[in-house]
Amino acid sequence: MNLIFYNNFHNGDIHYTRNFIKDIISKTNYDSYSFNHHNHHNILKDFNIRHLNHKLYYNNSYNALLSFSDNDNIVVNTWIGQDNAKYIRKSNKSCSLYSNYELYKDI
User: Which residue segment(s) compose the domain that 37 sits in?
Assistant: First the structure.
């Protein structure tokens, strides 16, 4: 089984999620880890994760799925804004690092 992270947005969005991704990788044991995004492939060169060049799960919707399964893949949306309203309500906080911790707990 493969774990594929994806993010439809920009460099800052990728940098913001990097430590969440490192944490997930350190706590799981999938066959492979990949990150699907349209930014430069070197943005995550400091850890071993395959770059998929944003071709597979591109969806321009702000309401993209948090995660889903596709054959042998688990796919996780890492964008800070996806379904953040749910986590803001859950935490009684604004869009913040705290509400993102809530999001990653669900992942």
Answer: 2-81
pTM: 0.75
d(C-alpha 67, C-alpha 106), whole Å: 10
> How many Å apart are CA 54 and CA 68, to the nearest integer?
17
Task: Classify the C-alpha dihedral 36-23-47-87 as positive or negative.
Answer: positive
In a domain, 101, yes or no: no
Count of structural domains, the chain: 1
Strands of the chain (E only): list them: 2-6, 32-36, 50-51, 67-70, 73-77
List, for residues 18-71, the tens digit of each pLDDT value. 888 999 999 999 999 999 888 888 888 888 898 887 655 545 444 444 556 667
